[in-house]
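Observation: inputs received (chain + iron/sulfur cluster).
Thought: call the complex predictor directly.
Action: predict_structure
Action Input:
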Amino acid sequence: MAGGTQIVKRGDLEIRIVRNKCIGAATCVVYAPSTFDLDADNIAIIKNGDWDKLEKIVAAAQSCPVIAIEVYEKGRKIYP
Ligand code: SF4
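Observation:
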């Protein structure tokens, strides 16, 4: 997957990664390893499979040094 924004919606939850911002710091992967991963170019991607709990996903988004992760619940922006 190249740059741009990856958007994945699941139930009430929507996660976006603004991949052009991502610098591959990987703290999101540390906080929510079931939700985020790095691709071959060291840019974050949203994983398939079971995601982490919402608190972990938000913590991952908060940990991102470039605020590349956005989290929405029921269409409302939770972070940033
Ligand atoms: S924490 Fe932010 S900069 Fe680091 S890999 Fe995740 S999205 Fe990219």
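Thought: report the result.
Final Answer: The longest helix spans residues 54-63. The first strand starts at residue 5 and ends at 10.
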